[in-house]
Specification:
single chain; Bac_ResReg_Asp_Phosphatase; Serine Threonine Protein Phosphatase 5, Tetratricopeptide repeat; repeat; Tetratricopeptide repeat protein; 571 residues; 82% helix; 24 helices; transmembrane helix; mainly alpha
Length: 571
């Protein structure tokens, strides 16, 4: 017997050490992924794949895992398909004081919605990510958030709102000495100034972007700067920039061809303009083709070739209408997505309003009861005063009948009148006291209602936390494991916390054995009889008989196993 006991203890100790080791391993993997994610996101993603069952992690570790996983996928440019996982991280960090991870969670929820073509939702999430910007010192994160908000405003043609966000992005990337970040943010800011007609500011930021870009990445900036120089009438500088853009990019660069065609149109070289514009119309971009056909139409009209001009104009109008239809379709889809989001928010608001309405109804009922009490009190004192006045008349008649002396009669009348005044004053005083009592009682009732609501909410949270806790789920799961004494103790402790000292109150009803107490605890945790028999190494029939016996033991009368289960669930 002693050897068997020692063997069981050794086995349970091994299980505990194995569980602790696995938990430590998963925490170590999360830390490793967090260190790698800034510069080696692909390696961080491989490390995170080593955590096979993230659902077994604690809520904090789960939120951290899904945040890191989403960040790694985004940096590896893996297309996003759903925001359900990052929503777990958002829901957790929203109720914490961790400003950095909270902002990251909102940012990546915005990134996913932007990839899913829901820009209005993405914009809302980006703005939420900046709610606590004063507590965040991560310039890279703040730079990306501001840059994406600025781009979304730019795509919506709201340039005056895009400008301050792009300026913030340039500031944060500059503080980080991130040359590529400064280059892209400066280029985006220059585009905003260009569209707003502030050409000098646009030129400054385009030239700033060129200072930081290298290699083929200068092609887009050079082409856009060349287009800006054309608008400013600086044709030589425009030509240099466009040629530079062509030399930096050996592939087909249709926007540069369009800019070159525009340049040669301005310098009155129609042959070269037509050559480059004909190359630009081969672009897969509808916007580039539209601009090319528009310029070709103008050139042919100036040259007097009206037939070609009309043909180019027809192509231009077809593309213009196609783009307008596309923009309208996208706008409708975005508006529908925002409507769905607002509808969910409205449902939540309606639920809150319903709860508030119920509280208001209870308050009005309380006030009505107090009003009835006040009216009854007033009627009582009114009757008392009338009775007093009747007594005064009675004494007057009685005094006359008994021939009371004039002095005595006047004295009695004076006394009665004084009593009337005192009663009137008492009535006023009582009314004021009653009003104060009503006010005080109303405040007490409102406070009691709040305390009851808080207690009820706290109890529901405790019960929900217990039913969804790892120890409770582990006991309900049908798998090959035997709970240790520590597991049983943890289950009882969580039950006591969730259900107001459940085991202590149960023991006071009757002297329960260890097995009987365990069965009661498992029934309270919604564990099925089949799993209970497995956990306690006995048959299902034995579990059923024990439940019947427990019911009789507690109530001193016969009962079924189901009656015992109902009693435990309500206890």
């Amino acid at each position: 017997m002693r050897h068997i006991l020692n063997g069981c203890c050794l086995f349970l100790l091994s299980l505990m050490l194995l569980a602790c080791e696995r938990n430590q391993k998963e925490i170590s993997l999360l830390s490793s992924a967090e260190r790698l994610i800034a510069n080696q996101p692909d390696s961080a993603l491989l490390v995170l794949k080593g955590i096979k069952t993230p659902e077994r992690l604690s809520r904090a570790e789960q939120a951290h895992f899904y945040l890191l996983h989403t960040e790694a996928e985004d940096k590896c440019r893996i297309p996003h398909t759903t925001d359900s996982l990052i929503s777990i991280a958002v829901n957790f960090y929203e109720n914490t004081d961790d400003a950095l991870r909270k902002a990251k969670a909102w940012y990546y929820k915005g990134r996913i919605n932007q990839d899913l073509d829901r820009p209005l939702l993405a914009q809302d999430y980006y703005l939420k990510a900046l709610r606590e910007r004063g507590k965040i010192h991560d310039h890279a994160l703040l730079g990306r958030i501001n840059n994406h908000i600025g781009l979304l405003y730019t795509y919506q043609d709201v340039y005056e709102k895009a400008q301050p966000f792009q300026k913030e992005a340039v500031y944060h990337f500059s503080a980080l000495n991130d040359s590529m970040g400064v280059a892209f943010a400066s280029r985006d800011l220059a585009r905003v100034y260009h569209m707003m007609g502030e050409l000098d500011s646009a030129r400054f930021y385009y030239e700033e972007a060129q200072r930081y870009t290298k290699g083929e990445k200068t092609a887009v900036t050079g082409s856009e700067l060349g287009s800006l120089y054309l608008d400013m009438g600086l044709y030589k500088e425009a030509h240099d920039q466009i040629r530079l853009a062509l030399s930096d990019n050996k592939d087909e660069n249709y926007p540069v061809y369009l800019t070159l065609g525009d340049y040669f149109t301005h310098v009155h070289n129609p042959d070269s303009a037509v050559y480059y514009l004909n190359k630009a119309v081969e672009s897969p971009s509808r916007y580039t083709r539209r601009g090319s056909y528009r310029l070709l139409y103008k050139l042919k009209r100036i040259q007097g070739d009206l037939r070609s001009a009309l043909a180019y104009n027809d192509q231009y109008e077809l593309l213009r209408d196609s783009i307008q239809e596309f923009v309208q379709t996208v706008s409708i889809r975005q508006a529908q997505a925002m409507y769905d989001y607002q509808e969910q928010e409205n449902k939540l608001l309606n639920a809150t309003l319903t709860s508030t309405h119920l509280k208001l109804v209870n308050a009005w009922l309380t006030i009505a009861l107090i009003g009835v009490s006040l009216v009854c009190t007033f009627l009582f004192f009114h009757h008392r005063i009338r009775q007093t006045k009747t007594n005064v008349q009675h004494w007057k008649i009685k005094g006359l009948s008994l021939l009371i002396s004039k002095e005595k009669l006047e004295e009695q009348l004076s006394k009665n009148e004084k009593d009337i005044r005192d009663l009137e004053e008492m009535k006023i005083q009582k009314a004021e006291e009653t009003k104060e009592l009503i006010t005080l009682r109303t405040e007490q009732l409102e406070q009691e209602n709040k305390n009851i609501a808080r207690s009820r909410e706290r109890q529901e949270q405790l019960e929900s936390r217990f039913q969804n806790s790892e120890i409770c789920i582990r006991f309900r799961r049908k798998e090959e494991w035997k709970p240790s004494a520590k597991d049983w103790a943890e289950l009882c402790q969580n039950l006591d916390l969730a259900y107001n000292n459940f085991t202590i109150r149960l023991k006071k009803l009757n002297d329960l054995t260890d097995k009987e107490l365990k069965i009661a605890c498992l029934i309270k945790a919604n564990v099925s009889p089949g799993i209970i028999s497995h956990l306690l190494c006995c048959s299902t029939a034995s579990v059923s008989m024990t439940r019947k016996r427990l019911y009789q033991k507690i109530h001193n009368e016969s009962g079924s196993a189901e009656q015992f289960d109902d009693f435990i669930r309500q206890f």
